[in-house]
């Protein structure tokens, strides 16, 4: 009976409320506004006097929660923020966030619904789920291979959410982001033997102002592929030479081959085997250590020269291998096996021959260059006097004193003549040239000046084979 009365009272109250309910009012505000911030003037919007809100005991209720987000300033009739409003807490990732409020007025009873549209601000940074992202990529992966990366999350919405991604510069990867899909694209093939691990920094950026960002480290582990064949380490060559005593017994250690593989894991597990032998029953090799031992005692009937071809294989798929030739000489004295010298020094002799050829060519080139230089210098020296003479370059010579006499007594020399003598450089004769005289009178063409050799000797020094000047 009491229950029925309670239900009836609630029904009557609801009918009374609906009878006095009025239209909705709507306001817009940003989240995280400070307490006391003004949302709007509710008294003015309702057409009420400022004091009416106080006399009618106006209050604000929030639908569906006991939290009191808004309040009324009765003195000014303003709707103000009472508590922190966090859009992400109220509405999560919804595009629209509306906070329902109710204004209750008494005397008479009135109910006004208020819709508060909470606007998002850029108060959250993009975040990745983990601080580190781990990827394992085979070094055999082809260029263009794609690897999906988990996207970042931003609690903000719209333009304030994640808008773009950025990958720091690196040698091997580029970034491809399309909508909510983020992928690493292999731009350069990996090589585990050069780099086993790669760390990349991925940044997510939102579109808010100021812009916010979040980062994550992508740790790439490069997995090995069987891309390297084993290599024998002995002296960096593909053959070996060993000397075996004639008295070696069965089981004696003869030699040991060692190979290495740049790969890792099972791709670097090596096994040895003899492919070919001069005497197949004389020697054996350990599968894993590479030790070569005699299977029986050495006898006089065994050939002095024994050749073995050893192969080593890795355990990769497909398996890679390498071979090595071993020359075994059964002897107690090196002098008994001249072939050993030939085998050991063939490569050295080849290198020595090359050096000798290079030296011979260098010396020949130097000698020819030297001969050409000498010939050029001598040619230039011989041409120099001719060039000087052809250019009419005269070098003053000795001065001839005015002591010529009329030998025939004809009286043709009526005055004293002075002559300047000029000789060319390099001249090997006693010839000289009359250039000018100091008298206007000239010597007749049919006359001859004569002077004794001793007179010339005094002026020029000794001149051989010349006694007359014409």
From TrEMBL:
Entry GO terms, CC: plasma membrane
Classification via CDD domains: Cadherin_repeat (cd11304)
An annotated GO BP: homophilic cell adhesion via plasma membrane adhesion molecules
SMART domains named among the record's database cross-references: CA
Keywords: Calcium, Cell adhesion, Glycoprotein, Membrane, Repeat, Transmembrane, Transmembrane helix
Matching InterPro entries: Cadherin-like_dom, Cadherin-like_sf, Cadherin_C, Cadherin_CS, Cadherin_N, Protocadherin/Cadherin-CA
Record field: transmembrane: 355-377
Record carries keyword Repeat: yes
Domain Cadherin as annotated: residue spans: 72-128, 129-232, 244-340
PROSITE patterns recorded: CADHERIN_1 (PS00232), CADHERIN_2 (PS50268)
One Pfam family cited in the UniProt record for this chain: Cadherin_2
Full protein name: Cadherin domain-containing protein
Membrane topology category: Single-pass membrane protein
Compartment annotation: Membrane
An example molecular function term from Gene Ontology annotations: calcium ion binding
């Amino acid at each position: 009976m009491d229950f029925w009365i309670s239900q009836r009272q609630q029904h009557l109250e609801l009918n009374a409320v609906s009878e006095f309910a009025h239209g909705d009012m709507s306001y817009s505000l940003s989240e995280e506004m400070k307490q006391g911030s003004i949302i709007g003037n509710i008294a003015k919007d309702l057409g009420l006097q400022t004091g009416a809100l106080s006399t009618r005991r106006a209050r604000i209720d929030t639908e569906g929660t006991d939290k009191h987000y808004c309040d009324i300033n009765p003195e000014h009739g303003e709707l103000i923020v009472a508590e922190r409003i966090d859009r992400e807490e109220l509405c999560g990732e919804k595009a629209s966030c509306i906070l329902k409020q109710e204004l209750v007025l008494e005397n008479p009873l009135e109910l006004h619904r208020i819709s508060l549209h909470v606007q998002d601000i850029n108060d959250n940074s993009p975040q990745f789920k983990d601080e580190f992202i781990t990827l394992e990529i085979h070094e055999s992966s082809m260029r263009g291979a794609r690897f999906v990366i988990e996207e970042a999350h931003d609690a903000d919405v719209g333009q304030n959410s994640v808008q773009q991604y950025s990958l720091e510069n690196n040698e091997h990867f580029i970034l491809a982001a399309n909508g909510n899909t983020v992928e690493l694209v292999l731009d350069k093939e990996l090589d585990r033997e050069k780099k086993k691990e790669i760390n990349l920094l991925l940044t997510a950026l939102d579109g808010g102002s100021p812009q916010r960002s979040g980062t994550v480290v992508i740790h790439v582990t490069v997995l090995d592929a069987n891309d390297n064949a084993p290599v024998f380490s002995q002296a960096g060559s593909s053959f070996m030479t060993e000397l075996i005593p004639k008295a070696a017994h069965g089981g004696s250690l003869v030699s040991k081959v060692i190979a290495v593989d740049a790969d890792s894991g099972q791709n670097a597990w090596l096994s040895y085997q003899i492919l070919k032998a001069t005497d197949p029953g004389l020697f054996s090799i350990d599968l894993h250590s590479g030790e070569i031992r005699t299977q029986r005692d050495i006898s006089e009937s065994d050939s002095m020269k024994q050749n073995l071809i050893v192969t080593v294989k890795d355990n990769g798929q497909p398996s890679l291998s390498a071979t090595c030739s071993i020359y075994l000489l059964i002897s107690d004295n090196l002098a008994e096996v001249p072939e050993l010298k030939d085998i050991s020094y063939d490569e050295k002799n080849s290198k020595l021959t090359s050096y000798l050829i290079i030296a011979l060519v260098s010396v020949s080139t130097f000698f020819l260059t030297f001969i050409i230089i000498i010939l050029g210098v001598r040619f230039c020296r011989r041409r120099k006097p001719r060039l000087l003479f052809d250019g009419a370059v005269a070098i003053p010579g000795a001065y001839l004193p005015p002591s010529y006499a009329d030998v025939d007594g004809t009286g043709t020399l009526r005055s004293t003549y002075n002559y300047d003598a000029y000789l060319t450089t390099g001249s090997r004769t006693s010839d000289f040239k009359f250039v000018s005289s100091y008298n206007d009178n000239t010597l007749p063409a049919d006359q001859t000046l004569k002077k004794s050799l001793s007179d010339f000797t005094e002026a020029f020094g000794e001149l051989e084979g010349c006694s007359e000047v014409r």
